[in-house]
Peroxisomal trans-2-enoyl-CoA reductase
Amino acid sequence: MSVFRPLLFKNKVALVTGGATGIGKAITEELLSLGCKVVIASRKEERLKATVQELCPNSNRLRGKVCNIRKEDQINTLISSTLSELGKIDYLVNNGGGQYLSPVADIRLKGWDAVVETNLTGTFLMCKEVYGQWMRENGGVIVNIILDTSRGIPMMAHSAAARAGVDNLTKSLAVEWAANGVRLNTVAPGGFIYSPTAAANYGGRDVFEKARVGIPAKRLGTTQEVASAVCFLLSPGASFISGETLKVDGGANFFPSLDRSR
Ligand SMILES: CCCCCCCCC/C=C/C(=O)SCCNC(=O)CCNC(=O)[C@H](O)C(C)(C)COP(=O)(O)OP(=O)(O)OC[C@H]1O[C@@H](n2cnc3c(N)ncnc32)[C@H](O)[C@@H]1OP(=O)(O)O
Ligand SMILES: NC(=O)C1=CN([C@@H]2O[C@H](COP(=O)(O)OP(=O)(O)OC[C@H]3O[C@@H](n4cnc5c(N)ncnc54)[C@H](OP(=O)(O)O)[C@@H]3O)[C@@H](O)[C@H]2O)C=CC1
């Protein structure tokens, strides 16, 4: 059940990258339930189609657009076609991203580049293009999803470095674009938010289940819990919050190794 007032969101237009699966899909569902029009964008057309069919089969309030955020020309087209179809972009959620597990010693340059391009460069390009085509003149709100990198992330150093870059980019843009009526914040889910697509990237649910002992609440986070944080930061309730990082981790960044026996 949503804790937000639909009046605040009605007829807003939101663009959510990676909005067809996992956390992005929960954000999409929440925004739709509040009355927004939503465009979801990612690489795999079949996932986009399935989510549009599942969440909004009988209306055009949800549209899927194929876009690889590593490709500047595709981002350009994504933004311009969204504007020509829906007339505005009030909210951008840069959620699309990911990585693979590897010790640093085994990361090849091609893999490093793939992860940095996906997470840091992709977010930079999305922010720059939406600002240039719409938000510079009209304002808007951007939320960037990262990982909680406050203690580094062994086995995911490429992604941790890229996400720390996104966190810092967000702070610079929050200052540069404030006078244009643009707010930006990051949401940092701590490690373990289960969804089937996220888990598939690591060979199944096991790696998430094993993490449970290190989480003070003794449970995994849900995609809806991340979506709530995102919607709060998008909402007018957060109208004087910009350049901040909101962790969603059930307290796991404090004393993360305590009480592993339970
Ligand atoms: C300790 C416990 C903690 C457990 C921690 C558990 C995680 C919990 C916290 C985090 C959760 C999440 O983020 S959940 C979200 C998960 N979802 C995703 O990651 C989806 C998106 N990810 C991806 O698409 C990929 O991971 C990403 C690398 C970014 C892009 O892949 P692409 O194949 O499209 O990229 P390309 O440009 O073709 O480059 C591929 C190159 O990348 C490298 N590469 C790619 N996958 C690889 C792999 N599995 N193993 C090795 N190397 C790989 C190789 O060098 C590849 O080159 P070649 O060898 O020449 O091919
Ligand atoms: N699950 C977790 O525990 C945590 C997740 N996160 C982050 O949250 C975000 C969402 O992850 P989650 O929902 O869990 O996992 P998913 O794997 O379900 O989501 C990743 C999404 O990103 C999209 N994507 C990946 N690469 C690109 C690209 N180059 N261009 C466009 N879209 C892309 C994927 O779609 P497609 O493959 O079709 O392109 C997919 O929809 C990610 O940035 C993730 O790293 C952060 C902390 C913890």
About this structure: Residues 17-18, 20-24, 42-44, 47, 67-70, 95-98, 118, 122, 145, 147, 189, 191-193, 195, 197-198, 201 surround NDP (ligand 2) (CB under 6 Å). The domain at 8-245 is CATH 3.40.50.720 (Rossmann fold).
